[in-house]
Amino acid sequence: MAMLAELTHRCPLACPYCSNPVDLERKERELTTVQWKDIFTQAADMGVLHVHFSGGEPASRRDLEEMVEHACKAGLYTNLITSGIGLTRHRLKTLDQCGLDHIQLSLQGVDEQMADHIGGYKGGFVRKMQVAEWIAEIGFPLTLNAVMHRKNFDHLEETIDIAIKTGARRLEVATVQFHGWATKNRAALMPTRKQAKQARLTVNAARERLQGVLVIDYVPADHHSDYPKPCMGGWASTGINIAPDGSVLPCHAAQTIKGLTFEKATERALKDIWYQSAAFNAFRGFEWMQEPCRSCDLKTKDFGGCRCQAMAIAGDAAATDPVCIKSPLHETLVRQAEADATGEAEIEYRVMSV
Ligand code: SF4
Ligand code: SF4
């Protein structure tokens, strides 16, 4: 249904919660405009409905407009996931003319001080708010995406207020997920159990109050839950990711799973990778499951949770996600999360190594 096109890992921001891999791809290894256009054509032909232009910061690519135009003409619904940095009024107008359907703008904090500190980019908040004004003026449907963690969870109400002020139709309250760069910042960003509990109450109250005004999507704190989320709606079932170098992945963290080989869209047809590759078929269906998932009634709802999290904590991608209360590693995960949540660690910014 949806393709995440990671056009580049370059980004002016340096968010410590970034889910991009620690080993970021350099510009020289990025796909060309022609290669990306071919991927969008193939995606539309195989039935993909929706493409998310993502990164890094997709506006770092000067050919963004050309790619958006191509994807729209191929019949894909297009969404731009951006920090706003690198977008001018002129570029936004051009993107509108190219057919861009929707924009998702990230929010690092509720004021200049907090947002610029978390994003590691001075002046970022002011520019982002300007971009939000241009988005409203042009009339793009807007989603605001706020990654929430220990340092900003206490400002959730103000985050919701900003979503309303910017005219967003949707707000994603996404509790930090510990993949990529975020794993380096567990002790700095892990929310407390109390924050996680309060966030749910705040979200539920706001959903009630703002019916017809703002839709709120909520990604709860994994590490303070008893059951896992249905990660990606099940492995290789509805989503496909393309990394900047053309690697085709079932999710953005899949390369952390040892033993799987991910093919490149420049070397094999996308359709063949989706239907036939060993990596995409590794965790489809239920045959691969171990106990307790195999005999659990909830397996059709959560698909055993996140394969990357199982790999990271259990050392086995086919294990039950340790977030699940039935996993033998659940207690270990809870204890580690509680230790991280009381830590005093400094944040480590995302940087591209030289
Ligand atoms: S999370 Fe932050 S650093 Fe990572 S791509 Fe998004 S804006 Fe850039
Ligand atoms: S045992 Fe497996 S299928 Fe059952 S709830 Fe836990 S993770 Fe989900």
| Rounded average pLDDT | 96
What is the straight-line distance between the termini?
A: 36 Å
The ligands found in this model are:
iron/sulfur cluster
Spatial sequence of strands, sheet with the most strands:
7-6-5-4-3-2-1-8-9
Report the biggest beta sheet as strand number plus sense, adding barrel if it closes: 9 strands, mixed
Query: What's the helix count?
Result: 13
Structural class: alpha/beta
Molecular shape: globular
| Helix amount | 25-40%
Q: Give the SSE string.
A: EHEHEHEHHEHEHHEEEHHHHH
DSSP strand content: 5-15%
Number of E-state strands:
9
| Radius of gyration computed on alpha carbons | 20 Å
Low-confidence stretches: none
What does the model show?
Helix 1 packs parallel to helix 2 (64-73) and helix 3 packs across helix 5 (124-138). Helices cover 34% and strands 13% of the residues. The chain is an alpha/beta fold. It has helices spanning 33-45, 64-73, 89-98, 112-119, 124-138, 156-165, 186-189, 193-209, 270-276, 278-281, 299-302, 307-314, 330-341; strands spanning 2-6, 50-54, 77-82, 102-107, 142-148, 170-175, 215-219, 239-242, 248-249. The protein has a nine-stranded mixed β-sheet with strand order 7-6-5-4-3-2-1-8-9. The protein is globular, with a radius of gyration of 20 Å. The structure holds iron/sulfur cluster (SF4) (2 copies). One iron/sulfur cluster is lined by residues 11, 13-15, 18, 20, 55-57, 83, 106, 350.
